[in-house]
Write a structure and sequence with these properties.
Order of helices and strands: HHHEEHH
Largest sheet: 2 strands, antiparallel
CATH architecture of the largest domain: Orthogonal Bundle
Radius of gyration: 19 Å
Number of domains: 2
Mean pLDDT: 95
Shape: elongated
Strand order of the largest sheet: 1-2
Number of helices: 5
Helix content: 55-70%
CATH topology of the largest domain: Arc Repressor Mutant, subunit A
Number of strands: 2
Strand content: 5-15%
Structural class: mainly alpha
Length: 118
């Protein structure tokens, strides 16, 4: 766990990562808040807070008496949200810095291709 960020956020991101990686497919059950609490040695309420973030976002849903499940379309929603975040947090600053340094779009593209090849 990363000590600089709230645990419940890290739990939510971990579930998101498992969905994106295909570890948790749509309509499959996710571990319970008690399982998360035991695994991470945290309070079940903290684990629940992380799970509820994803319920609120429509990524997970509850089957009464059974548990939490990955919602249909969750992977696509997560992919789109992460792409938007990637663009705003990485691409825009990268393009802005390149412009400050006089790096053209084609030069920047070439740099990215070289990095991707290595």
């Amino acid at each position: 766990m990363d000590e600089t960020r709230p645990i419940f956020v890290q739990i939510a991101e971990g579930i998101e990562n498992d969905i994106l990686a295909g570890v948790l497919a749509e309509e499959t059950q996710v571990p319970s808040t008690n399982e998360f609490a035991t695994y991470y040695r945290i309070n079940p309420a903290t684990a629940g807070k992380g799970v509820n973030l994803l319920v609120d976002a429509g990524i997970l849903y509850k089957k009464r008496g059974i548990g939490m499940f990955v919602a249909e379309g969750a992977r696509n929603r997560l992919t789109e949200a992460r792409r938007e975040t990637f663009q705003s947090e990485f691409v825009r600053p990268l393009v802005a810095e390149a412009a400050k340094l006089g790096i053209s779009s084609s030069q920047l593209t070439d740099m990215i291709r070289k990095e991707g090849a290595s």
